[in-house]
Write a structure and sequence with these properties.
The protein is an alpha+beta fold. The chain has a domain of 56 residues: Arc Repressor Mutant, subunit A, CATH 1.10.10. The protein is 37% helix and 11% strand. The chain has a three-stranded antiparallel beta sheet with strand order 4-3-5. It has a two-stranded antiparallel sheet with strand order 1-2. Strand 1 and strand 2 form a beta hairpin. The chain is flat. The mean pLDDT is 76. This is DUF742 domain-containing protein. It holds the Pfam family DUF742. It comes from Streptomyces aurantiogriseus.
Length: 130
C-alpha cells in the first residue's frame, strides 16, 4: 500500500484593496442606515410591528421597505431577515420610526390565550350539525 501523495497548498490570494463590494456595488456601512445611536425602544425578536402610515417622501429606503412590508403584522426577526439587516440595526431603525409614529409595536400573541384546539373542533362539529 502506498501512502497518499501530499498536495501542495495554493497561495492564498490577497483581498482587493478598498471598501468591500458586492455585485459591483459599494456596500453601505450599517451605521449609515441606523444613524446616531441613542435610546432604543424595548423590542425583542418576536415583537410585532404594524405600519400606521404610508411612507413619507423624506423616508429612507429601509423605512419605506419596512412600512410597505408591515401592512400586516410582522415580527422584528422577520423584518430583519427580509431586509438582511442585523437585529441591532433594526432596533435603532424601528425606534426612530416609533418616535415618528410611523409604526406601532405590539406584544406577540401568547399561545396559552388561544382556545384549545379540541374546544374549537367541538364548536365546529356542533355548528355543522345545525
Amino acid at each position: 500500500m502506498t501512502p497518499p501523495q501530499r498536495q501542495r497548498r495554493q497561495p492564498v490570494p490577497e483581498p482587493p484593496e478598498g471598501p468591500p463590494q458586492e455585485d459591483g456595488k459599494d456596500v453601505e456601512r450599517l451605521y449609515v442606515i441606523s444613524g446616531a445611536d441613542g435610546e432604543r425602544a424595548p423590542l425583542d425578536l418576536v415583537t410585532l410591528i404594524v405600519a400606521r402610515a404610508e411612507p413619507p417622501s423624506s423616508a429612507t429606503p429601509e423605512q419605506t421597505a419596512v412600512l410597505r412590508m408591515c401592512r400586516a403584522p410582522l415580527s422584528v426577526a422577520e423584518i430583519s431577515a427580509y431586509l438582511s439587516l442585523p437585529f441591532s440595526v433594526m432596533t435603532v431603525l424601528l425606534t426612530e420610526m416609533l418616535a415618528a409614529d410611523l409604526v406601532q409595536a405590539r406584544a406577540p400573541i401568547v399561545r396559552q390565550k388561544i382556545p384549545d384546539r379540541s374546544l374549537l373542533e367541538a364548536v365546529m362539529h356542533g355548528l355543522q350539525r345545525l
